[in-house]
Amino acid sequence: MNIGDTNKDRTPTLADVARFAGVSTATVSRCLNSPDRVIEETRNKVLKAVRELGYAPNFNARALAAKRTNTIGAIIPTMENAIFARGLQAFQEELGRNGTTLLVASSSYQTDLEEEQIRTLVSRGADGLLLIGYRRDPKVYEFLHRQGVPVVAAWVFDPDADVPTVGFDNFLAMKMLAEKVISLGHRRIATITAATQGNDRASERLRGILAAMTEAGIPENDLSIIETTYGIDEGGVALEKLMTQQIRPSVVMCGNDVLAVGAIAKAKELGLNVPADLSVTGFDDIEIAKISSPPLTTVHVPHRRMGKEAARALLNMVGTTGGRTKILLETTLQIRESLAQHTD
Amino acid sequence: MNIGDTNKDRTPTLADVARFAGVSTATVSRCLNSPDRVIEETRNKVLKAVRELGYAPNFNARALAAKRTNTIGAIIPTMENAIFARGLQAFQEELGRNGTTLLVASSSYQTDLEEEQIRTLVSRGADGLLLIGYRRDPKVYEFLHRQGVPVVAAWVFDPDADVPTVGFDNFLAMKMLAEKVISLGHRRIATITAATQGNDRASERLRGILAAMTEAGIPENDLSIIETTYGIDEGGVALEKLMTQQIRPSVVMCGNDVLAVGAIAKAKELGLNVPADLSVTGFDDIEIAKISSPPLTTVHVPHRRMGKEAARALLNMVGTTGGRTKILLETTLQIRESLAQHTD
Questions:
Q1: Highest averaged pLDDT of the listed ranges A15-24, A313-322, B14-23, B247-256
Q2: Helical (H) or strand (E) element with B71
Q3: Does residue B202 or residue B343 have the better pLDDT?
């Protein structure tokens, strides 16, 4: 077969590229795998053939030229609600300014699914990866290191981590909010949280509540804990459970705003006045916190800045080895009407 | 260099695979590009080498075996809010049941960014693509056809489309809601919509409102239209603009629930009672519609079913040519308190 009878609808193969460039397939392979071992003239011929033929299935022309794909992967635990949306958008915008495309996978908070997605993104040629949280099987980081794929863990700050972390102190942020709650007279505290197993953000936040309680002399065992998946409906179901307990809480501290908004809606449905009968708090300060009725007291996380800094850290690492960026961002309390003084 | 001194931290190359398998790099290339041109024994040797060395950067063992990557790409207009989340989650779950990984890109409603992402996903080896909406430059579909990458367009139903569509009738769905609105006595209608240029879902919904008005004898020019980006804050800003016009609307029909929830929050801030002073409607029936205060009248879209059907249609097309699935899903009106009889 020669170029003349190349079917326009057929995907061009490596062999087609070799034929077009007038080189062997081995030379094309070498260009793809070790461009530095091929002289520039040959590399340019192959590059031209790749462009002309629209050779694409597994490499693109840019990757061929630079041995980079200009693709970054991110794996987030969920796309079902907006908690990662704003940070990820800022992450993507910063990548875009650097000519890099973002591909995202969503792991549904499942460790094995995340590992599968990491393998897929690496095998699809991602130049680097953004992961949410740091705590995971060390083998994952070993694999990425072996593959030469840099990784940044965001939404956490861990000074001892083996990879760069760009995030905030989940423990301290929630502890500050719990201290505020306790200072308003609340002692019957409940929390609705994501499963803490394998989720360092959730477990650190829970630890923050417990630390504030201990410091205030409230027994840790007094904390009612309900674990559920993040979701508006799930927050409502959990709230209902809490309210059928013998000792009802005066405040429900939720692991994020999505759970909190669901809890508030359910509380109203049950005839409770928020915050007169029950205070509710969130975490994240996403858009729904502001328009919640009543507006939600929460922890404000600088999502956009976090996404941008994570992108910068990761781009700096691509093509280099190591990288030890650790960026700690500040969170602030956002006090709104859903939290009130406890009076009974 | 021989296997003995392979640096464990170095990414294995095609040449390493060839050496390990005891074949030439050209044979490895042939295995990767035209496995059917290589005898089984050789293919198995190469496959074993790929596995042993953890050769991954651009191909994985499964792709080598089946010439498929078991990766599907999806490009959605935004991850910033939950409007695509539920459908996409169902899409991913159905792919997962078939051992296929989903990679998602978000185009921020930008045509050129979407085209870049399509090229990236194809060059990263996606077996197929999910796109939102059908209307785009025909060159995009030509490119995908040439590359042999099947595509399904969702969130729309278009019997004349050149590719399978899995979705609903945006025009009819919004027309039904507008008819309901008009039947309640509203004649001063406003709409807050996404930019309709290049967005067939938004333009069809707008056309639905206009058609219902025309049938009811209300001049099309009476419709106040504000175009904005989807977002809670953006819905609020648009509502404020509408309320400073000389002729105030009695109902604001929003292009989606996110805009509507923002419009309601702003209306309350302006001292308006919803629905006594102003009715507001949405589109999608995502979770926030139910917990909105007052709860939101909207169009219910079967997002989960749409995602699942789109995955099935796409999986059926991978490895085959053509495919002409067209699935029309039904939408229903979800009447809640944000819409009331107009009385003045």
A1: B247-256
A2: strand B71-76
A3: B202
Q: Which of A92, A123, A293 sits opposite B56 (nearest CB)?
A: A123
Q: Where are any strands of DSSP class E within A116-237?
A: 128-132, 151-154, 165-167, 189-193, 224-227
**Spatial separation of the C-alpha atoms in residues A123 and B302, rounded to whole Å:** 34
CA angle A296-A303-B232, nearest 5°?
55
How many A-B residue pairs are in contact by the CB < 8 A criterion? 196
pLDDT band at A67 (very low <50, low <70, confident <90, very high): low
CA dihedral A215, A220, A224, A228 (to 10 degrees): 90
Residue A82, chain B, CB below 8 Å: the answer is yes
pLDDT of residue B26: 79
Q: How many CA atoms lie within 13 A of B182 on its CB side?
A: 20
Contact B106 A104 (CB under 8 A): yes
Low-confidence winner among A28-37, B156-165, B290-299 (lowest mean pLDDT): A28-37
Using the Cβ of A265 and the Cβ atoms of chain B, whether some distance falls under 8 Å is answered with yes
pLDDT at A224: 97
Contacts of B15 in chain A (CB under 8 A): 29-30, 33-34
The beta-carbon neighbor of A291 closest among B30, B116, B265 is B265
Give pLDDT tens digits for A123-179.
Answer: 999 999 999 999 999 999 999 998 889 999 999 998 889 899 999 999 999 999 999
B148 in contact with A at a CB cutoff of 8 Å? Answer: yes
- Comparing CB atoms, the residue among A13, A88, A262 nearest residue B291 is A262
Neighbours of B273 (CB within 10 A): 11
Most B CBs within 10 A among A120, A254, A303, A320, hence the mutation to make, goes to: A120
- Residue A15 has a pLDDT of 81
ipTM for the predicted complex comes to 0.77
Please choose, from the candidates A247, A255, A302, A301, the residue with its C-alpha nearest in 3D space to the C-alpha of residue A280. Answer: A255
Q: Which domains are seen in chain B, by residue range?
A: 3-66 (1.10.260.40), 71-168+303-331 (3.40.50.2300), 170-299 (3.40.50.2300)
Residue of higher predicted confidence among A99 and B27: A99
What pLDDT does residue A13 have? Answer: 74
Helix (H) or strand (E) holding A113, with range, is helix A111-123
Q: Are strands A298-300 and A332-334 parallel, antiparallel or unpaired?
A: antiparallel
The 3-class SS string of B142-207 reads HHHHHHCCCEEEECCCCCCCCCCEEECCHHHHHHHHHHHHHHCCCCCEEEEECCCCCCHHHHHHHH
Residues with Cβ within 8 Å of residue A241, at least 6 apart in sequence: A226
Q: Is B6 on the interface with A (CB under 8 A)?
A: no
- Per-residue model confidence as pLDDT tens digits over B43-85: 888 878 877 776 653 443 334 444 688 999 999 998 877 789 8
Question: For residue B28, how many C-alpha atoms fall within 13 Å in the half-sphere facing its CB?
Answer: 29
pLDDT value at residue A59: 40
Q: What is the dihedral of CA B30, B32, B38, B44, to 10 degrees?
A: 140
